[in-house]
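Reproducibility note. Readers wishing to regenerate the assembly model reported in the main text can use the exact inputs given here. Chain order matters: entities are listed in the order in which they were concatenated for prediction.
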Amino acid sequence: MDAVSGIGSSAAAETSGPATVGPDAVPVTFDVNGVARTVKVEPRVTLAEALRGPLGLTGTKIACNRGACSACTVWLDGVPVCSCMILAIETGGHDVTTIEGLAKGEALHPVQAAFIEHDALQCGFCTPGIVMSCAALLERTPNPTAEAVQAAISGHFCRCGTYPHVVAATLAAAKASRG
Amino acid sequence: MAKDQVRTATFPAGIASVGLGEVTRQIPMDEPPPLPPNAALAVIGKNVPRWNGRAKVTGATRFTVDINLPGMLHGRILRSPLPHVEIRAIDVSGAAHHPGVRAVVAVVQAGAVLRYVGAPVAAIAAISPAVADEALRLVRLDVKALAFTADMDDARAPNAPLVYDAGSAPAGHPSGFPAAPGLALNGNVRGPAIERRGDAAHGFAAADIVVEGDFATQVQTHCCLEPHAIVADWRADGLTVHMSTQFTAGVRHELAEEFGLPLNRVRVVVDGMGGGFGSKSALGNYGRLAVALSRTAAAPVRIILDREEEQTDSGNRPATWQRLRIGAKRDGTLTAVSLVSYGTAGVTVGAGVGNIAQALYACPNFEGAQHDVFINAGPGCAMRAPGNAPGAFGLEQAIDELAERLALDPVALRDRIDPSPVRREERRIGAARCGWPRRHAPGADSGTVKRGLGMAQSLWGANVQTNASCEVRVMRDGSVEVLSSVQDIGTGIGTVMAQTVAEVLGLQPEQITVRIGDTEFPAGGPSYGSRTTASITPPARTAAWRVLQALCREAALVLNAVPEDLVARGGRIAMRDDPSRGMSFAAAAARLRTDRISAVASRRDDYAGFRRRMGDAALAQQDLGGVQFAEVAVDTETGIVRVERVVAVQDCGRPMNPLQIESQVQGGVLMGLSYALFENRILDRHTGRMVNPNLEQYKLAGPHETPAIDVVLLENYQGQSATDAFGIAEPANIATAPAIANAVYNAIGVRLRVLPMNPGAILAALGKVPVRS
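Running the prediction on these inputs yields the following structure tokens for the assembly.
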């Protein structure tokens, strides 16, 4: 992939001092679900907006748009982040994984399968973000406690109140993953 | 109904855990025979996975905010920055000339009065939300600031600035919801709405003991994770609207009326629906504006409210104050209940405390006087158990006080005064589950952290929408679909409809394609008032039963049998007495003369009749009981209340899908817990602005505040319909806050009469910090 990193304009790197881009759209290239994608976005556009808009990945949700509810959670280089709190131009050269990239073809991620089995969703609007946080937890902690799951989702709001089933589902997914 | 159109049928009746009896009903000839208890069924009553679960966990579900039509514009709304203004002049020409703007619609004209911060002024459709926001800043407004009142107590003062005069104040509704019509306006106070039974003065005179208490509740906002959103697409041949709504068919009616269109030229669609809780029941001002913008711009227009708009102008649960007096004999028998309430839904009506004080317990004498108080704040609207949720916070604490004064156990007192056999059983189960006998005297714990147990009850009407219908289709290849405009707002009604149809046809739920949330299909009911399951599952079963009869006629020809001797079970249509004589469901369907057969059924009256009928809606004979027990730990140094466990014992008639119901009950408990301890819309009384219009300073219970929640469901059969199923959303939300309040009292020995019971309130109650006015 072309090394278009940080603020997106390779011309800017040749000048001294901090680069200035915008207000017009600038290109940014990053890996989305394993595929290099280039989008032209205004510098004010957040990662969440870039995913949902030009990239058409509407599985990532915006609910509060200020990092309070975590509905917009995606993985940035494998780490769950609020994509509404990151500018798209900051993600150049990085790997982004969204809810659309979690399943392997038809095979659901164990967390996704467990969410269905344990009914860990109701309206489902916060669900993609919560799934991303729970799946990330299992990446780093294959055998979590219920408290660890609670901590992993502590930034998420679910107005339908799915937390008990989310914890049960994630523990079951961990068990299933360990075989 | 004429005699030849009905037949007599015997239904299971009673509470399964107590023992089932029978009840005989007259039922229409064209409705199916009584449905056996869940234990005898194949898929109804089972934990069938959610029909749209896969789409939701993969991000594939399309919510309204995800709809992106070709050429779509983005609408934003200019809102009043002041709580009470008269518009002297409005000039939108600057905005209209912005190169990215495609339409401007002014909501108000010169001379109009706006009555709350956030009231819509104008709307703009532009090529992006950012451009629309830019253009909003080009609208020139000349306003005269008027005196305002943003506090209910201030608004009741004799010299308070007036929000309305008699000519401009909102009227009530003939149904009495959200408020009765024709009530007097006195200053900012509307009402009272009076309810009377017997002679309360006489009842108090006959009482041995009278308890009296004042209780107050705050404004709670809905906080749906999906914001209110609409995509309006006005075309010459009709209007299509995608909307995050709880009632597609109702919104279609509103649009047709508002824009002078026939019903068949208006289509309302919702796929994913990200929560409503009452706030997405109607078209709303943003909905009207999106359609008006689309008509003007001749292009689709999407409006998505931002979180501040959500918090200030998408409805809320009104604040209430109530004074309750309860008179009783020494044995607990109630002699009189009186209730006076004042509540505020901001600029609108509907801030009462419900009917729980008048209807939950047996008492011959009742008097109630409920008032609405107008203030300059955003309008309230229905929110999960409107009225009875704040009402229960008062009543159930007052009953607890009465029990203590009578030296009776709170459960034992309720056994004496609550006539409901359902709640009696719920109390018995809940008390055993939570270890009620270990409950100690109030404040008896010696340490810093004091524990307590409390319980409370709920009352909610079993609502039914009679304007609810459903179609079931069978194709010649054996595929089956169920269709209705009813929407799945997260309750899982689509799953339940698939279960209902599958049960009748002897198939598995995943074999039924669910097509709902579109007014092109037969009109379904709303997803509010806990009525969806009761309204749509009987027609789903009836429609499926009718197509099965057609299939059985085909199969009977092949099997050389009479159709009445055939049953559908395990994917086959076969002889009832000899299952080996049969054929597969698909083989029967293959014999159809046409590619598709179909039946549409609508919701008939409950077989035992309704208590009351209001237009398209009705009230069933029974109510939906529920009893909850809460265990809390109160840190008397920090004031933090931790709810450790809630046992919720609930009734929704026949439980169609226990796992989904459990999810909903957990949600109701959590919303009640959050109401009890955290949530509070805070208005600055000096500016009329909400100071916490977001999701970080508006405190919500999260994962760390979630207690262990035990859900126990009764199976309660009454032979009322083709499924005998009722709803759960609201009954699960009513008892939580008072159960926690009673547990807090049991923990610390001081009663909290104001919500939320946050650390400041607890420490003030304990005398550790000054009481804030």
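We highlight two features of this model. Residues 532-559 of chain B form the longest helix (28 residues). Residues 439 and 453 of chain B are 6 Å apart (CA to CA).
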